[in-house]
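sorry for the late reply, my laptop died twice this morning and i had to redo everyting from scratch. anyway the thing you sent over, i finally got around to it. pasting the sequence first so we're on the same page, its 376 residues, then the predicted structure underneath. double check i copied it right bc i was rushing
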Amino acid sequence: MPTSPSRLRAAVVGTGGIVTGSHLPALRAHDERVELTAAVDIDPDRLGTFRAAADAAGMSGVRGYTDLDAMLAEARPDLVLIGTPPSLHREQTVAALEAGAWVLCEKPLCLSLEEYEAIAAAEQSSGAFASVVFQHRYGSGAVHARELIAGGELGAPLVAHCQTTWHRDAAYYAVPWRGRWASEGGGPTMGHGIHQYDLLLHLLGEWSEIRAMTARLVHDVESEDVSTALVRFESGAVATVVNSVLSPDQVSRIRIDCAEATVEVTHLYGHRNEDWVYTPRPGLDDEARVMRWRTPAADLPSSHAAQLGALLDAHGRGERPPGSGPDARRTVEFAAGLYKSAFTGRPVLAGEIRPGDPFYDAMHGNHPEWAPKEAQ
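ok and here's the structure:
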């Protein structure tokens, strides 16, 4: 079917589980605004399976490629969705930007602040933008909570807790690129808890100081399998952050105690409005006000479709999309700060990791007890 001039041409890079299970339904949900025209994968069999799935979902005629550059030259997509292993994200994002396409890339967007700057330079030269997939920001419950906090409706944020306590077994880490600095960038700090603490940063704003610890307690991996942090925000609020892949009882949770109310979301891999709970401070007797906290106008689950919709809205307005630029950099810097604090044993201030700092180039910072031997 020919591409409608009113729809953007989209391509996917990588056709594994995350693209088939999440990006494909997201594209289908917005098929009035975007059309999937091409897919790239180095595995022809996996590519063929994906194209069949796209056809079954009503997206016929998707051209298959085993080479990214060839796809960019021939298909000339307006939007590229990237779902490959993390070590490929920087290179593929830059290539798509240089071809003039906007990018929506799976987390982490890149493996270091140095890699982020390469993406920022490609944005600057091309005029295109790259967003990272942090779909939990875009559910209506999160949008509502951010509006309430930013508007002062809940009072000043004071204390917060951010918890990603998941479980991953040895079979999970048998995948060669997992648990390795060069291919994943780190452990649950980079690959799992990043969703929750990105949402925490989205809700509370700029962080100013971090003090952290990491450990390798169970898994035979290069990186950590648990990390914890104490965080101070520019507002004065303080928070705890826990990232684990060792926890039998799995949960994702954020709790923010503000002066007028506590707001909490508890879920695992995605939230709806019902997962958000608002508890007014003792003595607050204003039921109409409390009801406003609890009743967002719509119930949009957090999802790739929700984030893709926000990106398409920004594209239509010609504006930088959410989750890109300094907004994306802040989350990368937070991860670097956590690792630097944990490995050096001292607090890290926002903005201190600059070129020349080993933690600017790699999350392990060439630390002798953590960096792979070939990096030392």
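The chain has two domains: 8-134, 136-305+331-349.
thats about all i looked at so far, will dig more tmrw
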